[in-house]
Write a structure and sequence with these properties.
An 8-stranded mixed beta sheet has the order 7-6-5-8-4-3-9-10. Strands 14-13-17-12-11-18 form a 6-stranded mixed beta sheet. By secondary structure, the protein is of the alpha/beta class. The chain folds into 5 domains: about 40 residues, no CATH class; about 200 residues, Histidine kinase-like ATPase, C-terminal domain (Heat Shock Protein 90, 2-Layer Sandwich), CATH 3.30.565; about 140 residues, Ribosomal Protein S5, domain 2 (2-Layer Sandwich), CATH 3.30.230; about 150 residues, no CATH class; about 140 residues, Beta Polymerase, domain 2 (2-Layer Sandwich), CATH 3.30.460. A hairpin with a 2-residue loop joins strand 9 and strand 10.
Amino acid sequence: MVPCDNCIIIRPEGPQQECDLPNAEKTLEQMIFTTIEQTFILSYVLSIRVTKLGKPVELPRIGAKTRVISAIPRKRSLANRSAQYTLDLAIFELIDNSLDNWRLNRLQTDLDITVRFTFSEGVLSRMNYRDNAGGAPDDRLEALVRLGEENPSREGIGVWGEGLKVACHALGRKIDIFTRHGAGKGYCLRLEDGWLDKDSWDVPCFEAEGVEPGTTLIDIEGVKQQAAWEEIAGSQALSLRNRLGMTYSSVLSSSDGPRAHIHLQADEGAISVEPHWIGTGEGIRRYFAFPPGFEPTEHLKSFEINGRKLRSKIIVGLSPEQSRDLSGVSMWGNGRLFDLAKKEYSVGFGTRGRARLPASHPTMWRLQVWVFFEGDPTLIPWSAPAKNGYNENHQLADEIRSFILDVATPYSIYTRVAKRIDLLPHSVAWNELSPEKRIAELDRYFGDLPDSGRRVGEAFKKAPHLTSDFAPPTRLTSWDRDRDIDPPALAPCFSVAKAKQVANLIAERDDDPDRPWIEKQKLLDRLARGLEVSPLTKQLAESSHPRLGSEDELVAVTVRLPRRAVNTLENARGKSASAILSELALEEASRTNPILRIPQAEFRAVVDLTVTKLRQGIPDLRGIALFGSVARGDADRASDIDLLLIHDNPSGAERQALEIVKPFAHDLLVERYKIRPIAESPETLRKQPRGKAGPGSIVREGILLLSDDAVLRLWANLKGGSAWRRRGSSVIR
């Protein structure tokens, strides 16, 4: 588009043409809507850099000071804030305050919290809240009633200095706060009925006798929030009793030090709050399944904001049965639950397209992700001020979502293909089933097998883990993302559904003249016994060119295959059972031997030989990668074998490599291949933008054959792949 004569074009080097419009002081909106042509030109101007648009604004001059305007907020703001609190949220705030005070006073005794409800003619009229958290010292009395007094502890729950004050006004009209720090004096802070209607913020403080040492008692009259005793202490899921047990499960069930106890009392009865176990070690044992290869795992990571660190821990796994109430992402901040079973985009779930954690998929109701944050409460991503949800606009929201996706995606993939029988026997829920019910669970999945495969189900019934009780492990596999290079081993496990499919595939292909039917039946039986045998043998895992003809090896490999391999071969028509298993075994073996990832088999031997020679002949070699047409799989007889050597001294390494490949270039094995080694330093790879020509394209299309730990991590980062998928690269030791 050519600009008109009446426009100013601003470029980085300065104006090229001055505007002589008569209305030079027009506003931006008037200029934009003058003509369509000027609209596009202004868009172009603004996209570069605008240095002049009319005359500069002249600020008025400041004269003499006349008075000072008070910025003290009206009490209406406090009243409006308290009106947003329910009975549950207000009591949560009181408990949060007790926990913070308990930790601040560093008490080594259990924390006892008692909430008493008084009903008058069926109406909740009075409440008493008492704790033994140590009481408030003289210099902290203001913090009990003054808004904005921050929690001095940087590992607590309170953040904004509002919780206790807002909660008290949300609960009642007249509040007396009695407190005594240790063996010191007792005090009473009184908020009279009608205090919110007065302009003064002053709160009278009295000496009080009869206050027990180290306690705080809050007496609330004229209760505003109404609830029946059944709603408070009942067994229904949303009762106050159950919500308290879930929100504070970690402090109610602590086994490595003092713990908290919460008691609810009324004339109608008294109960003690029991932990729900979610978010605890016992909860892991109760709510998770431990299928081989997909046991729950623990992942540690630190986030940073302006030099301050927030520690996090994620425990991810699958439950034996679908549960909408517990599946999804649950979050804790310094031991306090603030969001439960969240299944939204902000935590990695999706509802459209190829979402990695599809929220609408019923099998995702088995995926549980527990996220624990520890550290400065101002950094924890909870909603202000009641801490009753996840703050999706938090500074760390994108990093947290990526972290969750990284650790949960493998479980998401598996749960979409795993059946109930793949998970239930590997959980304590299996122990609660009678032998008859266990057999019924098995028949539920093997009842529709053809006669040729029915013995698979019979073999499963004899498997030890199906006939005995399940004992969960005492410790989880843990991965510290800040220090560890390799993730915990997460090998695909043998699934009943997969065995069933393989059985049907073999049954449908009864045309293999080299394997009589009786041999196929033996193979089915061995597939079933695969649950008991060890997976891939050491020889097969370490061998560069494994012999895949042994039936034992085929079975051992098959029981560890990912489900996608079977899905891929479902459409392979005309293949014999042994051919199917051979392809499956080859795919699994390539996970531990990167040479087998070379698409064209005729190049594997020469690349293997060359890599061995280079590794032996070049000291301090840090890595070798294959790239070019051989790595892509479109090489022909005239193609070079392109190898990238990663070395701190690339020029010296490249000279050595040329000398090494020169003598054996005419060997019978490699005489028709031309080997072309080049060398780069790790720094060169790190600085090369992803996707550009040179090292950038090598990383994008290449196959890493050898590496040390640092190069392995660098390669994965440059390639943009998840750490879960960084397998298939031998490590130089």
